[in-house]
Amino acid sequence: MVRILSEIRVRSTLPDARLDKPPILYALPVIALTGLAFASLAMVITALAPSYAYFVSYQTLVLTPMLLLCGAVFPITQLPDVCQQAAHFLPLAHAIDLIRPALLGRPAAGMGAHIGALGIYWRRYFVGV
User: Fold this and answer.
1) Which of the residues 29, 40, 48, 96 could staple to 1 if both were Cys, CB 3.0 to 4.6 A apart?
2) What is the Cα–Cα distance from 124 to 110, expressed in whole angstroms?
3) pTM of the complete model
């Protein structure tokens, strides 16, 4: 995983660099880290939920807006400025900014910052530090 991420990082400094391995190999470590980040957040929500009905409101009030704001459905650049700024604080935006270029065979811009943000989400909620 570290080798693949470091190869993406090195290639991202080259102009017009294309990745030479199948794109899914570059996306798998990011998908795993994204899964850890969301699983960590889900464990916190599960621990705090007073009842099963709470999960419906979590889906409606947290996950659906995150999906709409993070560039999965609409490009972030076409959103209002306030929404663009808010999207940078959501974990799904970082995952999309890493996975989309990898699947298209291009290096990701700002890869270290995106991986760091996903790592912070994982560490904050899973490890609790």
Assistant:
1) 29
2) 21
3) 0.73
